[in-house]
Amino acid sequence: MGNTTATVVLIDDSAEVRELLKTQFRLSGLLTVVGDGANGVEAIGLAHRHQPDLLLLDLSMPSMDGLDALHGILTVSPRTRVVIYTGFESNGLADRAIELGATAFLEKSIPIEQMAHRLHAIMTDAAASPAPERRLEVVPDPADRQMSAEQDHAHDDQSVLDEHLERFREVFEQAAIGMATMTLTGSIVRANRALGEILLRKHQDLVGVDYATLTAGRGEQLGTALDEIVLGAADLVHLEHEVRGTPEPRHVQASIAAIRDEAGAPLYLFLQVQDVTAQRAAEERLRLSEERFRLLVDAVEEYAIFMLSPEGIVVSWNPGAQRSEGYRAEEIIGRHFRTFYPQALQEARHPEYELERALADGHYSEEGWRVRKDGSVFWAHVLITAVFDDAGQHLGFAKVTRDITTSRESQEALRQSEERFRLLVEAVADYAIFMLDPEGHVMSWNTGAQRSTGYSSREIIGQHFRIFYLPESQAERHPENELEIALSTGRYEEEGWRVRKDGTRYWSSVVITAVFNDVGEHVGFAKVTRDRTENRLAEEEREQTNASLAALNERLRQAAADQTQFLAVTAHELRTPAAVLRGSADTLSRHWADLGEQERIGLLAGMSSSADRLGRLLNDLLTASKLDSDALNLRPVRSSIATLVASAVDGARVSSKGVDIHVGEIPEVEVLVDASRIGQAIDNLIGNAISHGTPPVRLDVAVSGDTAQVRVSDSGGGVDTDVLPRLFQRFATGDNVRGTGLGLFIARELARASGGDAFYEPSTPDNSAGTFVLALPVA
């Protein structure tokens, strides 16, 4: 460059800084200031007019900041070396500046008296280069140099820049949330890590970014806010916006403050950003909930529904209230609800009495005259309910009023209607009535539901209704299938077991109805459940009773059939020996002399046998009769089991000549029984084997512990399976021609009366006929 001083243009929005630099450059003799400006627009114009060797460019300026102007400067004056001169630190900002074509980066922390020498050195280095590479130079802290006497007074002026820098650093370092420094036009100069996390970007990548591009359509509002700050209309502005480019919607609250110099001129902007996504989501949920409730209340025009404070002051109002009372919301909110009552009731403090009763009993209901705004009266049905929060604190009262003036003209019809309504409400107490959302989650709850299932509304609302079903029904997705059917057909109905909160089961009648809104949108299901456990148990008991009656009828029918059979067989059993006796006696009396000795002996033996047969039959009938009337008198004595068996076998051999009867080894043991009655029982077992079995007949005696068993079997096919269930019952026979059906019955009853029993052991491969056993107590 020789001895010619370099030309320079100064661009800084602070007039004080520009004047200070012009003075320093003039005193140095190294630089000639050919122009100066206060923003990026003026910088471009001055660069075009003067084509300077050097342009010292501030970053944070109104209208257009340094980064925005840099491209325009180099376009109109390509040979000009642009040096960034700012109060911002170089972190990240230097890299962004080099991308845009800056030659060097100087921080305002450099002593002002050294600026001319720094810039001259930059120009000298640049002139030595054959072709400018526009590489960014971040000037290190300068070494101490010998200052001329003319520059000594400039040390005091450095405090101006130091003050600016210190203020910036203090604010930036003390911030505890997402923060950044920006130029006066909104370009980010420096960002902290918290801001990068909030915006879902690396904080280094935010440097040089126009913050308006991150505001998702709020750039115009941001520009207005920045203008207010730069023009001094505001020192702090707030802007809430969504963050552009995030996977999920993210809301942030941005606070922008101006950092000003001593004269009040803005130097740069300080940004604080807080993530309010969760807060806004919660507020939106609350708003929607309140909106749904408000729409519900506002939609009711037939009822005045409003809230009272604990003292009775009106705090809310709905269209139904305005329609019935005549007051607009702004006219009545804040006034005491005694306004609606006739003067006499006000003087009697009846409104206050209603609140006292509602607070004491939970609610208060009545009908009476009320007064509209225009002074007319109407007959109202009033319900006041005390309202408490979850902690039990009294919040006020909900008041529902309905104008029923016209219906009062038909008092009797109204009474009947109210009676039907009362009965309906009382009946609903036996029903669980609640709403499900489309997925099956409980949305509402009533007293009947709590009564039948045991869950309070706080415990159950929000849970899936499968909780009421048995585990196996849940595993089979039966609850979900119910909803699918209800949705496709309009309703679903069944009865089945359900589970209460305490784990007990109850039989439930269930009706599920799909619910749609006015536009046909499916909004959920109405579920009505009734506990029918008592009915179910009564039905089961009735079924059991019917089964028992059927079984009893069957037994009676069988008994009648058996009795008929018994009478027929008994007649047969009586007729045969009677005929023998009558025929034999007649023959002997008429033809005694004509008969031979052996013939007479044979006839007399037949008469004797028939008489024995009649005796046994009469003995069985008499014993059965005594057993029925509990008139049987037993005389138990110690008796030899061998003697009892031998006597019975001898009698059987005499009465049934030719029948083969085998007797096994009989142990020497005594039993404590009535010998004649047990002898009769053994006779009956042997007679049963002879009459219904196949010879040979075998008798054995076995002793086990304190019981002796007389065991009788034959060689036949055993007892018919149809007879087994009633084998030892009265009149039971295995055929229609032999026996009275009393023998086995008498044998068992005599054994039981003696402390033993009689029973049948079914057939086995070794014993096809099975065995009749008479068990007796050992003496």
Largest sheet: 6 strands, parallel
Number of helices: 23
Shape: elongated
Q: Considering DSSP H and I runs of 4 or more, what fraction of the residues is helical? A: 40-55%
Rg (C-alpha, Å): 58 Å
Residue-averaged pLDDT: 82
Tell me how many strands there are: 26
- The first-to-last residue Cα distance is 148 Å
Strand order of the largest sheet: 2-1-3-4-5-6
- The fraction of residues in strands falls at 15-25%
> Which residues form runs of ≥5 with pLDDT under 50?
130-157, 421-426
Secondary structure class reads: alpha+beta
Give an overview in words.
This protein has 779 residues and is α+β, with helices and mostly antiparallel strands. The strands form 6 sheets. A 6-stranded parallel beta sheet has the order 2-1-3-4-5-6, with helices on both faces. Strands 8-7-11-10-9 form a 5-stranded antiparallel beta sheet, sandwiched between helices. The chain has a 5-stranded mixed beta sheet with strand order 21-23-24-26-25, covered by helices on one side. It is elongated, with a radius of gyration of 58 Å. It is 42% helix and 23% strand. It starts with 5 loop residues before the first strand and ends with a strand.
Please render the helix and strand layout as text:
Blueprint: E1 6-11, H1 15-28, E2 31-37, H2 40-50, E3 54-57, H3 66-76, E4 81-86, H4 93-99, E5 104-107, H5 115-128, E6 137-138, H6 158-174, E7 178-182, E8 188-191, H7 193-199, H8 219-230, E9 236-242, E10 251-260, E11 266-275, H9 277-299, E12 303-308, H10 319-325, H11 329-332, H12 343-347, H13 350-361, E13 363-371, E14 377-388, E15 394-403, H14 411-428, E16 431-436, H15 447-453, H16 457-460, H17 471-475, H18 478-489, E17 491-499, E18 505-516, E19 522-531, H19 533-591, H20 597-628, E20 637-640, H21 641-655, E21 661-663, E22 670-673, H22 675-692, E23 697-704, E24 707-713, H23 743-753, E25 757-761, E26 771-777
Helix pairs in contact: 2-3, 19-20, 20-23, 21-22, 22-23
